[in-house]
């Protein structure tokens, strides 16, 4: 007696390749993964510089390396998700939404960590920022706004706005 397992039903994928505006495809599949990969290289390859970029108030010592390596692992996962998973997901906006919502939470935690590292007074006074602070805050905030705009479907064709997570 031969038993066959039923084949799970397949859901048609949502056509995101045409629906996701070029701006989001470029930012979330190319720019964001490249910045995350740069973070990996800096955290592992030049830890004192990475730490100074994030906060000038903490001097690097070898005991911090495990944390920087773990952070680099997180950045590597973020780079992989943006560069590979979004391409594999192709037409499924549900995957895009889930991934970008998760990374948005990470972005917000990074912005909060930056505010704590700089001190709220300095964080709220851009005139007091170092060049590194400008690059860090603007890239984090810019990508967080890009993700939030994506999740809100800003700039999408009208028919894509109704399709949500």
Automatic annotation (TrEMBL):
Record InterPro entries: DUF7704 (IPR056121)
Domain of life: Eukaryota
Domain DUF7704, first and last residues per copy: 18-154
Name recorded for this polypeptide: DUF7704 domain-containing protein
Gene from which this protein is expressed: 20340689
């Amino acid at each position: 007696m031969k038993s066959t397992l039923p084949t799970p039903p397949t859901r048609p994928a949502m056509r995101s390749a045409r629906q996701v505006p070029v701006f989001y495809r470029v930012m979330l599949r190319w720019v964001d993964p490249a910045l995350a990969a740069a973070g990996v290289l800096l955290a592992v390859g030049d830890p004192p510089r990475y730490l100074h970029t994030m906060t000038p108030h903490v001097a690097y010592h070898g005991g911090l390396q495990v944390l920087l390596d773990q952070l680099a692992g997180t950045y590597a996962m973020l780079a992989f998700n943006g560069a590979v998973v979004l391409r594999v997901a192709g037409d499924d906006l549900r995957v895009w939404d889930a991934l970008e919502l998760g990374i948005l939470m990470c972005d917000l935690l990074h912005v909060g960590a930056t505010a704590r590292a700089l001190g709220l007074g300095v964080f709220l006074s851009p005139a007091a920022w170092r060049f590194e602070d400008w690059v860090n805050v603007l890239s984090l905030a810019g990508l967080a706004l890009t993700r939030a705009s994506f999740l809100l479907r800003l700039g999408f064709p009208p028919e894509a706005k109704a399709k949500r997570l």
